[in-house]
Amino acid sequence: MTRVLVVHHDLDMAGQEVDSLRRFGYEVTECGGPTRNQCPVLAGHACVLAEQADVLVYDVWASGDAEGSRTLIDNIREIHPDTPVVLTSPGLNLNWEESTGRHAVTMLQGQPTGARLHEAIQSALGPAAGAKP
Predict the structure, then answer these.
(1) What's the predicted TM-score (pTM) here?
(2) Separation between Cα atoms, residue 67 and residue 121, nearest integer Å
(3) Is the pLDDT of residue 45 over 80?
């Protein structure tokens, strides 16, 4: 079973994403991110929850602001480079997301429905992921 960490600043949206992913068969852990917790990633340290996940689903506003979110995503890519990241956005392109290289993320813009999240996660995991979570 694929383990997913959902990091979202909005508790209601996070709950919807978590429920949707569980219906698709994922094992999901939820974190409110730096807006609700002390975040080791912002301090340049490994995250225990990220270490336990196969893929990370982050909201672009997980830190509460655009610049903090960029730092958060850059740091998570540096600290956990082998764990794929799906970055969700309500539709805003922040022009700092990278699709290749060490800081690459899989972007999901617009409504993060269960089907769209599943598709983005499978894309992020690559061909070895197969068709099932």
Answers:
(1) 0.88
(2) 24
(3) yes
